[in-house]
């Protein structure tokens, strides 16, 4: 993660925006009086929100754990090629 001062960030906004959006590298911006902040791309932000939602959802986490146990025992359901194609279009 790149860390820059608020002055560096302001003077080179395009460069740091490109770093966050094109390289998916968060940029930490520090301020002399505190109140630091992080700049991330919209795609990365939405991904983080989705991950937090799943991790905080007890029911989904239980389903994931049960699925992993089934998979590790080799007893999972195999998807048809049509089902795999539908998933990959998402």
Describe the structure.
The two termini are 29 Å apart. The chain is elongated. The protein has 90 residues and is of the alpha+beta class. It has a 3-stranded mixed sheet. The protein folds into 2 domains: 2-41, YefM-like domain (YefM-like fold, 3-Layer(aba) Sandwich); 43-88, no CATH class. It has helices at residues 6-11, 13-22, 42-56, 58-72, 81-88, and strands spanning 2-5, 27-30, 37-39. Strand 2 (27-30) and strand 3 form a beta hairpin. Helices cover 60% and strands 12% of the residues.
Mean pLDDT: 94
Q: Termini, distance in Å? A: 29 Å
| Quaternary assembly | single chain
Helicity range of the residues? 55-70%
State the shape: elongated
Largest sheet: 3 strands, mixed
Highlighted features:
3 strands, 2 domains, alpha+beta, YefM-like fold, 90 residues, 3-stranded mixed β-sheet
SSE diagram, text form:
Blueprint: E1 2-5, H1 6-11, H2 13-22, E2 27-30, E3 37-39, H3 42-56, H4 58-72, H5 81-88
Parallel strand pairs: 1-2
Antiparallel strand pairs: 2-3
Quick rundown:
The chain has helices at 6-11, 13-22, 42-56, 58-72, 81-88, and strands spanning 2-5, 27-30, 37-39. The protein has 90 residues and is of the alpha+beta class.
């Amino acid at each position: 993660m790149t860390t820059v001062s608020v002055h560096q960030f302001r003077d080179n906004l395009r460069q740091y925006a490109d770093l966050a959006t094109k390289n998916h590298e968060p940029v930490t911006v520090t301020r002399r009086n505190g109140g630091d902040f992080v700049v991330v791309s919209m795609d990365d932000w939405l991904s983080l929100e989705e991950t937090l939602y799943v991790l905080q959802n007890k029911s989904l986490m239980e389903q994931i754990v049960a699925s992993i146990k089934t998979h590790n025992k080799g007893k999972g359901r195999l998807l048809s090629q049509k089902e795999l194609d539908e998933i990959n279009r998402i």
